[in-house]
Structure formats: C-alpha cells, structure tokens
Write a structure and sequence with these properties.
This protein is mainly alpha-helical and 73 residues long. Helices cover 70% and strands 0% of the residues. α1 packs across α2 and α2 packs across α3. It is elongated and about 45 Å long. The two termini are 27 Å apart.
C-alpha cells in the first residue's frame, strides 16, 4: 500500500501499546487500512459540519461531533 497516510511503524507501536507481544505484518497493514478508512469518514463529516456552520476551518469540536456520528454507525 504505497499511498498510505499512516506509517506502518506507527501502527506497529499502537498495537504493541495495546498489549501485543508480537505483531504480524498482515495485522499491522489491516489496522492501517481500517484506521485510514475510519479517519477519512470522520474527516469528511467534520468538513461538512464546518461548512454547515459557515466556516472553512475544521475545528476540534467538528472532529469530536463527527467521530461520535461515524462510530455510532
């Protein structure tokens, strides 16, 4: 996956911090893919919220509301 926004090393660290002793390459790649997909959904929702409020700037509150909406689905 060459066009990834997240570095694979960071994904390994996240899984390790969650308590894994060992992390398979395929598991790290899959988590990265899922995180990017969820992150894109949150970002799109946050942009819509900012636009609805008449702003071009996405604020932390937009991200928080978008995260709640996306994760509720």
């Amino acid at each position: 996956m060459s066009g990834s926004e997240f570095g694979l090393a960071a994904v390994y660290r996240v899984i390790k911090k969650a308590g894994a002793d060992r992390v398979g390459d395929d598991a790290a790649i899959e988590l990265r893919t899922e995180l990017e997909e969820i992150g894109m959904q949150i970002a799109k929702q946050a942009v819509e919220l900012a636009a609805h409020a008449g702003r071009k700037t996405v604020k932390p509150s937009d991200i928080k509301l978008a995260t709640k909406a996306v994760l509720r689905q």
